[in-house]
Task: inverse folding
């Protein structure tokens, strides 16, 4: 008979031993984690039994001195209450779910995202939320069409004011493209394009968001072609084919200030090359 039920001894590659704890619940074998000694593993096992079989605890009963980590705590309670085992710290509600980063930090998502976040672990760094997807760190805001450079309150907003409510109905994208802002010009709604050179330079005002985004690309190209050393982000226009894009690109006007700046760059580059020769 095992002295510590739910615990088995295992060995690392260097030969050192450790102890793995696990529990079987509803025919599902669930790992509880690895521990330095058998007693710690057994405490995790006993705590898990109280959670799923005795239903002694709720989500918010967790304290730091519990034998289980909080992530496993959430997984087990969700399995107990909702009958679905999910390997990430998710707790299901009627029409949405909670994803816990810690006991005090959690986010709300639509059930449409359950499969994705059930298989992609969310990481939080500097207030930004990422998942690892195909070996890359992907900002979860990209699922809403929000770019990495977007600013909350300016480029997108949370309708109910709750920045942890990530349900689609609560996120409103204001600006889809870099350097493009909805505005009022001469009393009429429009889209304004600006580019950062030495401060923000106005590119122009345009009737559509798409035209403003293409004008931004044109301004960036003009500056780079005249020797401005900066990697400007490119606006990708999904709803314009190559012919439409080229037509708009050549017809859209950009401000005189941008053209003058580019011309001065070109002149300086020409003089510099002339002196070299």
Result:
């Amino acid at each position: 008979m095992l002295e510590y039920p739910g615990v088995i001894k295992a060995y690392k590659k260097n030969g050192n031993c450790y102890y793995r704890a696990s529990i079987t619940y509803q025919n599902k074998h669930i790992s509880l984690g690895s521990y330095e000694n058998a007693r710690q593993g057994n405490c995790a096992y006993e705590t898990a039994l109280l959670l799923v079989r005795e239903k002694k605890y709720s989500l918010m009963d967790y304290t730091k001195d519990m034998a289980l980590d909080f992530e496993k705590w959430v997984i087990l309670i969700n399995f107990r209450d909702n009958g679905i085992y999910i390997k990430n710290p998710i707790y299901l509600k009627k029409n949405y779910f909670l994803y816990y980063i810690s006991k005090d930090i959690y986010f709300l998502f639509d059930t449409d995202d359950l499969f994705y976040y059930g298989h992609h672990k969310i990481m939080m760094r500097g207030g930004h939320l990422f998942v690892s997807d195909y070996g890359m760190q992907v900002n979860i805001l990209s699922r809403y069409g929000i770019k990495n450079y977007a600013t909350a309150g300016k480029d997108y907003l949370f309708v109910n004011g709750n920045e942890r409510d990530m349900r689609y109905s609560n996120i409103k994208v204001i600006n889809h493209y870099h350097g493009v802002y909805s505005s009022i010009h001469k009393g009429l709604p429009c889209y304004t394009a600006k580019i950062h050179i030495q401060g923000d330079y106005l590119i122009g005002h345009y009737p559509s968001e798409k035209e403003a985004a293409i004008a931004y690309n044109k301004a960036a190209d003009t500056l780079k072609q005249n020797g401005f050393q900066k990697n400007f982000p490119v606006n990708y226009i999904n709803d314009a084919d190559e012919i439409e894009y080229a037509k708009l690109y050549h017809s859209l006007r950009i401000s005189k200030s941008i053209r003058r700046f580019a011309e001065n760059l070109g002149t300086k580059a020409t003089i510099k090359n002339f002196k070299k020769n």
Helices lie at 38-52, 70-82, 114-119, 209-225, 242-251, 256-276. The chain has three domains: 1-70, 86-174, 180-276.
